[in-house]
Amino acid sequence: MAGAVLSGMIERGGGTIITVSSLAAVTPNLLGGAAYGAAKAGVRNFMSFLHTTFRGEGIRAITVLPGEADTPILDGRARPPAPEERANMVQPIDVARAVHLAATLPARTVLQEVVVAPTRQRDTSGDLEISRWLGAPDNAKSPSAEEAGA
Question: What residues does each domain of the chain span?
Fold first, then answer.
């Protein structure tokens, strides 16, 4: 997408590209998985490259890094968060408002990275422990459910 719009933006003297990555780009863990964290880190790196390479042409490259957000992807977790946990998470509208803020600032200003995180961080230690042993070889030593916080 960036390749498709970049030359036109440069010809017009500027433009804005906003990509939603994830805080998993900064702090990967078992809840998102290694591949997810690596992909999101790649997105973040690419946007930093665009920013440093084309800012002189008036291009604003912005990465939005949401923390754990209440989206359907959470339903696929080993232990999906309970409704009361989801209520305190980042909501999709919160991410949309951050994108809107970054897009509507004057062209002279760039929010190179925007972190959108929940104010109240939930304890994910039990979830991480469950995920750690999910799919592990049968002979791997797994803690009991009680030890894992389930």
Answer: 2-122
Return contacts of 75-82, CB within 8 angstroms, 24+ apart: 77/31, 77/127, 77/131, 78/127, 78/130, 78/131, 78/134, 79/126, 79/127, 79/130, 79/150, 81/122, 81/127
> In terms of pLDDT, which residue wins out, 143 or 6?
6
Higher pLDDT, 141 or 45: 45
CB-CB contact of 47 with 21 (8 Å) = yes
Model confidence at 145: pLDDT above 60:
no
Task: Tell me phi and psi for residue 68, to 5 degrees.
Answer: -55, 120
Question: 139 in helix, strand or coil?
Answer: coil
Token digits of residue 97? 């408002």
Q: State pTM to two decimals.
A: 0.84
Is 134 within 8 Å of 82 (Cβ atoms)?
Answer: no
Measured at the CA of 34, the angle between CA 115 and CA 72, to 5 degrees, comes to 60
Q: Does CATH place domain 2-122 in 3.40.228.10? A: no
Residue 46 burial (CB count, 10 A): 16
Three-state DSSP at 150 gives coil
**Tens-place pLDDT, residues 70-105:** 999 999 888 899 999 999 999 999 999 999 999 999
